[in-house]
Amino acid sequence: MTATLGHTQRRETLPGVPAGTWHIDPAHSVVGFAVRHLMSKVRGTFNEFDGHITIAADMRESTAQVDIAMASVYTGNELRDNHLRTADFFDVEVHPAMSFVSTGLREVDGSWVLDGELSIHGTTRSVHIDVEYLGYDPSGAQGEPRIGFEGRVSVNRSDFGISFGLVDSGKVVVGDRVDIVLDVEAVLA
Fold it and tell me: How far apart are the first and last CA of the chain?
């Protein structure tokens, strides 16, 4: 994940944050997306996911892993959600999960970029997630240490073999670019 730590200071750690494995708290995290539909954008979430972030003493050695249940898609429209679960889009019967596994963490212009492999619809592609470090609370709401990040990445769904609705009668019905936003709160294990 990319932690924005300030553009004037180079840091290899997050001040005061203990190294260790942090489990993503699904009750306080969101996996969201936005995609163009005709002249507007449709936004949605995936409501079932699991993962962890391992923060190393040297941030560059930190890792992240997330698994997302594709059937848990929610856009606020049951008809659309059911269509997204079919073979036209996610094909959840054959490809029930989307996953991300990090392959490296690097600093770019004072921010961190988390590189990794994103698997959707049976296809794996390299992605680069920009993540902003949102903070650390050593005592959390219930006495447990918590940390927060926001990650952003855009992907082309056609790169993952999902091309339904890209063009109909010469017009784009559903856009190819999907913006993914990860609002993550994690608890130290």
Answer: 18
Write the DSSP assignment of 53-101 as a string of letters: EEE-SSGGG-EEEEEEEGGGEE-S-HHHHHHHTSTTTT-TTT--EEEEE
CA 181 remoteness from chain centre: 6
Query: How many beta carbons lie within 10 A of that of residue 126, not counting itself?
Result: 9
The residues, ordered by sequence, that sit 6+ positions from 169 with a Cβ below 8 Å of its Cβ are none
Q: Are 95 and 118 in contact (CB under 8 A)?
A: no
CA distance 29 to 32: 10
Give the domains, in start order, of the chain with CATH numbers: 20-188 (2.40.128.110)
Higher pLDDT, 139 or 29: 29
Contact by Cβ (8 Å): 162, 90: yes
pLDDT reading at 173 higher than 90:
no
What CA–CA distance (Å, rounded) separates 17 from 168? 51
Contacts of 173 (CB under 8 A, 6+ apart): 37, 38, 165, 166, 167
Q: Are 156 and 187 in contact (CB under 8 A)?
A: no
Which pLDDT band holds residue 27 (cuts at 50, 70, 90)?
very high
